[in-house]
Amino acid sequence: MSAIIEPRVLKGFRDFLPDAEIERSRVMRVLADTFVSFGYVPIDTPILEYTEVLLGKGGGETDKQIFRFNDNGGRDVSMRFDLTVPFARYIAAHRNELYLPFKRFHIGKAFRGENTQRGRYREFVQCDFDCVGVDSASADFEIVSVMVRSFENLGVDDATIHLAHRGLFNRFLANLHLDADHAEVLRTVDKIKKIGVEKTRAALADLVPSDAADTIIAYVTPGRDAAATLEQSTRLAGGPADDTERLETVLEWADKTGIADRIVLDPSITRGLDYYTGIVFETFLAALPGIGSVCSGGRYNDLASLYTKERLPGVGSSIGLDRLMAALEELGRSNENPQGLDVLVVFLDAALGALYHEIAAKLRSRGVKAEVYPEQRKITAQFQFAEKKGARAAIIVGADEAARNVVNVRDLVLRENHDALSIDAAVERVASITDSSSPRGPSGR
After folding, report:
1. What is d(CA 281, CA 160) in angstroms, rounded to the nearest whole number?
2. Model confidence over 100-133: pLDDT tens digits?
3. Dihedral-angle region of residue 75 (phi above 0 means left; psi in -120 to 50 means alpha; beta otherwise)
4. In whole angstroms, what is the distance from residue 69 CA to residue 76 CA?
């Protein structure tokens, strides 16, 4: 007999048991519904791309983390490290088939060979939403609005969006005559929330003169409010310009639409990837500051220029599903009934199999999640199965009930029986039980 292969999973990759996958799927449905409500449409792209497609704009550390190999045809290929760069390639490839502005969302897996940590893995799911084809305050503000609404619909009411402007920061660095060092300075500042102000200043001092490092720290330190912060950034960058006007507009619209309390002007937000050119943002949970940003993005007006001569400005954001799921679980905001089954139709008699499935079909037509147990077993075993799946009720039909054209309903929450009901009455009873005992999230049923 051959040796048994150990059922191992690669480091940074995971299996998902039903409870976890059902909850992930629920969160993805809530997000997809939110994106659709703003007019975004779904797309998909391959996991594998030609390496030259992906390496052009990732920049720095991301290029080092890419999963890269030669396929069986000798082609140099890589696994996508995010969903934004493939989207830029997608836009260029299908430009004649698409209308502008084009608003898409994409929920899919990406891969990075980085060190694993809480909520961060080598295989992970991103939930992206972007608007391409226009460079306007309205497009930028809508992305912020989608971010706010997404967390509201997930029941997360303490998420704050920290935003800044990469163009403004670049102008500030140019004012310090640090143009040549701007990429490393940006990446260093991007780590300030992880390593703190002092370590960031020390790292900056290794890149630029000491007085410049002090000025950079002053720039990225927020003022007492958004107005004071913007005034300081504007002064240090050399005065007002299009970048400060864009920030003023987004902040003004946030105030007028009632979401200003969810927005923080934070000049330390730079985003480490090279392709951002304008407004940038990251989202933090007040109850879990240590988990990092759970939604981030920004404006990237030149990304598609790698693949087309047509200028296709874009803005978008990405929710890191795995980090978000870790946060929701830690905060106790996951679905209370992850298995999500409403009712189990008990299987007592093989001769009644068609009736059982008929009853289940009627339940499903009412929006009730119903399952027929697949074989005849002791009723106690079937009840145990129902409870493991989180069912709220069970329908019981034996030969006697079938002869009288009635069914029995067992309320598995209250441990109550409702006997000798017509099938239609039983459907109503089950719907009542599941509606009263099952908490409904923002996505409804």
Report:
1. 10
2. 999 999 999 999 988 877 667 899 999 999 999 9
3. beta
4. 6
Whether 398 contacts 349, CB under 8 Å = yes
The residue among 105, 82, 221, 235 whose CA lies nearest residue 164 is: 221
What DSSP designation does 286 have? T
Place of tokens 């459907």: 427
- Per-residue tokens: 44: 């998909």
Strand blocks (E) in 179-294: 263-265, 279-285
Query: CA 302, CA 305: separation in Å to the nearest integer?
Result: 5
pTM > 0.90: yes or no? no
| 181 DSSP 8-state letter | G
- For the chain, what is the mean pLDDT? 89
CB 274 within 8 A of CB 56: no
Pair 60, 183: CB distance under 8 Å: yes
For residue 228, give every residue at least 6 positions away whose Cβ sits within 8 Å of its Cβ, in sequence order, or none: none
| H-helix segments, 206-320 | 210-220, 226-237, 242-256
Instruction: Walk across the sheet containing 48-50 and list its strands.
Output: 48-50, 76-79, 68-70
In Å, what is the CA distance from 72 to each residue of 50, 69, 76, 221? 13, 10, 10, 51
The one-letter amino acid code at 311 reads R
- For residue 20, give both structure tokens: 């976890």
Residue whose pair of structure tokens reads 């299996």 in the numeric block: 15
Strands 48-50 and 41-42: unpaired
The residues, any chain, with a CB within 8 Å of residue 181's CB and separated by 6 or more, are 173, 207, 208
